[in-house]
Design a protein that fits this description.
The protein has 3 domains: 7-94, SH3 type barrels; 102-156, SH3 type barrels (Roll), CATH 2.30.30; 164-283, endopeptidase fold (from Nostoc punctiforme), CATH 3.90.1720.10. It contains 4 helices and 25 strands. The chain has helices at 164-169, 188-198, 207-213, 263-273, and strands at residues 17-18, 30-31, 34-38, 42-46, 55-60, 64-71, 74-79, 85-89, 93-94, 102-104, 108-111, 123-126, 130-131, 133-137, 140-143, 148-150, 154-156, 181-182, 185-186, 216-217, 232-235, 238-244, 247-252, 257-262, 280-283. The strands form 8 sheets. It has a 6-stranded antiparallel sheet, sandwiched between helices. The chain has a 5-stranded antiparallel sheet with strand order 8-7-6-3-9, with no helix packed on it. The protein is globular and about 55 Å long. The model has no long low-confidence stretch (mean pLDDT 97). Residues 158-285 form the NlpC/P60 domain. Belongs to the peptidase C40 family. This is Peptidase P60.
């Protein structure tokens, strides 16, 4: 009998599934994955293999994925970072891409064809994207593919930010994008996941997954007293980050931006108009 598994993080379809799931799910065929890396600045992870399908999340440059199928320009993959499953454009992936050495620590940075800011940039990378550095050229680091990135915008892959809340605050006013995970646009759980990752904390993708797995619960009542900076506040389908005991930072469709507002104001509006009452508060550490 097949188990009831979360389709978001389970590489299984009626016709195809990961070989490790044999005996747990029903499928007509089982396959071993082929590891590839994302070589695009970012790659959409869509619910179906077509460009107008819903965007569930994004994979960033350097991210490792397991590919279970490639067909008509789309790869059916599972992301190594958070286990999310979906369809990624085939041309965003490469089989023999080198292992990243550095991560983008700026909110966004450009790749140049040479060691000069006056050259027309080739690409833009968002915070959290990773690259392979092979050399130095003045104020720039040289990438394996020949591109150049301003050195101060990169950090070693094992160097982490001390405060994930400070990382999140840098996204203030960035546009809201359902499924987004870059400084061009992101959603509430994308903001939380990216900020935690910059501080070395791995986490799942969606708000319900975050609430079920991160930290420990914090007791609260209608007064919302006793909360602190870094607490994560959850609703059914939404999450925000406290930047102080009374202020919530969240990517919200209310303003279609990353927005900072009094927690009580957000609590009252969300309860009345969208996600209902607060379901929980979680504290890391």
């Amino acid at each position: 009998m097949s188990l009831i598994l979360d389709h978001r993080v389970t590489p299984a379809r009626p016709d195809l599934a990961a070989s490790r799931l044999r005996g747990q799910v029903e499928a007509r065929a089982f396959v071993d994955p082929e590891p590839r890396r994302v070589v695009a600045a970012s790659a959409p992870v869509r619910r179906e293999p077509r460009p107008d399908a819903p965007l569930d999340t994004e994979a960033l440059s350097g991210e490792l994925v397991d590919v279970y199928e490639s067909h008509e320009g789309w790869a059916w993959v599972q992301l190594a970072t958070d286990g999310y499953v979906g369809y990624v454009p085939d041309d965003a992936l490469r089989l023999d891409a080198p292992v990243p050495t550095h991560r983008v620590s700026a909110l966004r940075t450009f790749i140049y064809p040479g060691a000069s800011m006056k050259l027309p940039p080739l690409e833009a990378l968002s915070l959290g994207a990773s690259v392979t550095v092979t050399g130095e050229a003045g104020d720039f680091l040289v990438l394996a593919d020949g591109g150049h990135v301003f050195a101060a915008h990169l950090s070693a892959t094992d160097a982490y930010e001390p405060d994930f809340v400070a990382v999140a605050e840098r996204f203030l006013h960035v546009p809201y994008l359902w499924g987004g995970k870059t400084s061009l646009g992101l959603d509430c759980s994308g903001l939380t996941q990216l900020s935690l990752a910059a501080a070395g904390v791995g986490s799942p993708r969606d708000s319900d997954m975050l609430e079920a797995s991160l930290g420990h619960p914090v007791a609260f009542d209608d007064s919302l007293q006793g909360l602190q900076r870094g607490d994560l506040v959850f609703w059914k389908g939404h999450v925000g980050i406290l930047t102080d005991p009374e202020t919530l930072l969240h990517a919200t469709a209310y303003t279609m931006t990353v927005y900072s507002e009094p927690l009580r104001t957000a609590r009252d509006r969300i309860q009345a108009k969208s996600f209902g009452a607060i379901t929980g508060v979680r504290r890391l550490g």
